[in-house]
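Researcher: Good morning. I'm working through a list of sequences from a screen, and I'd like to move beyond sequence-only analysis. For each chain I'm collecting a predicted structure so we can compare shapes side by side. This is the next one on the list. No need for commentary yet; just the structure.
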Amino acid sequence: MDADPQDLDELALRAAAGDRDALEDVLAAVQPRVRRICGRMLLYPEDAEEATQDALLLVATKIHTFEGKSRFTTWLHAVASNSARGTYRSLKRRAAERATDELPVNADPRTTSVIAGSRLDLLEALEVLAASNPELVEPLVLRDVQELDYNEISSLLGVPLGTVKSRIHHARTAVRPLLKLHDQ
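Model: Good morning. Structure tokens for this chain:
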């Protein structure tokens, strides 16, 4: 069961101020939530677990940057989402380094994932979007994958609500044709 958001905010602020016991409590309390966040993007359990561990390490090392301007869970969503995307990039790089003869010669790279179970189409679309418009990726992930509301995203990113809505709209417009390839 997840900790009460108010209690978690207070605990995170204590951890950010250097309280090691509070940090241990935060990490224990958020581990299931982080696993769910990573699992939404990386469906293969081992991939999601790798991203979860990376995200928890980031929480432990970056907790001092949490200032309490937004809910801790909002901050956590951004850290975990970015960790899942980073894990995907790492897995993709490792897969490319392996001998390509492991895949059937006629394998379609759009439908054959060398990263078993990952949401390859979405993650690839996010990579394409990041190359041309990196400022659009995080709002899209926070809204459409992590299901945060617009106000939380605005607060987390420190940009006006209208900017968040505009970025999400532009991101959806850019990503939609990339995902349609996989619907056919």
